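pasting input
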Amino acid sequence: MSGYFKELISGTKSLFIGLGITGKYFFEPVVTMQYPMEHVEMTPRFRGHIELIPDEETGEPKCVVCGMCQKGCPSKCISLEGEKREGVKGKVLTKYILNFTTCSLCGQCVESCKFGAIRFSKDYNLAGPRKEDFIFDLIKRLKEKS
Amino acid sequence: MPEPFRVILFIIFVMAFAGLNAAYLVWCERKGAGHIQRRIGPKEVGPFGLLQPIADGIKLMTKQLFLPKGADPLLFMAAPLMVMVPAIMSFMVIPFSETFVAREVNIGLLMIFAFASVNVLGLLLGGWGSGNKYAVIAAARCVSQNIAYEIPMLVTTITMVMVTNTMNLNEIVRAQAGWFFHWHIFRLDISLLMPVAFLIFFVCSLAETNRAPFDMAEAESELIAGAYTEYPGMGFGVFFMGEYANIVIGCALSVILFLGGWQSPIPFHPVGFLGVIWGLFWFLTKLYALIFTVIWIRWTYPRTQFYELLNLSWKVLIPISLFNLILTALQIKIFPWL
Ligand code: SF4
Ligand code: SF4
């Protein structure tokens, strides 16, 4: 019998404690983010698809078309081309295509680039209905960004 | 005002009140749920999402109404009405303010309980008429739950009738005039267990209206949508409106029986039109505070298991409410000086 009352009182008390907790939450600020209107700042180590790093002065890609990234990629998703131009030292990058459908974000390309010309981007809004949406022209993306 | 006009005005008022309550309590519910879970809740449709209920209503109305195979057409169609209509009828005797009441029926309390019992019949027939096993399980649960909770609720009500000597809701409110400690919930001189009686009544009204944590009729995680499983569009909408109207009735009864109805907490009551507004203000304030508590409870507790639910009623609420009845009788009749 005393157990009955003990349980009754402790049970009622715990119910009120529960109400207290949710009541407190009610007045606390919201913690969710209004996603399409607001965006989170991605963390420094977040790996998005790779992107070309522009030269600070010219704004052109820093890439010297050595092809190491293409060789290093285990999934063969990078294809690039370059050409010699009058008055420019070395090769100029003309095409840099990333097939993101097979990229595993392993980072081999970033590791093997000795010129610091590529890095992981922070893009994550990448949904698309077609496979072709994920064949990225990185030169074009770089121009769009700047 | 001539009588027929008054009646028509009140019918319009009551329908509008029930409809608006259903629409905007859903909004409050969603906003409340949001903030308790530290989200925002609806915010896109109109400022603060205030037009959301209209959008929801249009959505429900444009949906196709169809009859599931094997359903009983008459029962299936009548069930939502049987939940909705009694709830609206009950508004007729609720005193919103001293003179602001459609009909001062001298057995108002009894009338409300009579109509309230039709509510469960609606759910039972809806579940049965759908010809769906989940709906039938929900209907069976709903009935045993309602039987279990009607007893302590009625016993508590009898206690209150014993205290006030009347079933006229307005008279019950008048008996609580004066300071707030004249409200029945604080009248420990009548019964030492008055606050407990209020708690019992409130819990029972939650269970009677199938509100969480006692929402056995819906129990979406176990029974899809319980008795409402097969209802499309506005069939479900009417059930929903009836449910919210029932919550308002349940809370209004708690306010009238225990929290002083339209009485203000201080002994001040202006006369004439101002008095009506003053009473209305206090009644609605208390009513919505209680409704907010109902919403708050829903988003705090998980749904109880079914046998726990029956245990709570038969092992806790019924014995205590019976004890309270006896205690009150003793205190009123035998030890009136206590
Ligand atoms: S991250 Fe890995 S898979 Fe992706 S492009 Fe670079 S090397 Fe290839
Ligand atoms: S390794 Fe670096 S520099 Fe060489 S081609 Fe790739 S991106 Fe350009």
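fyi The first strand of chain A starts at residue 50 and ends at 52.
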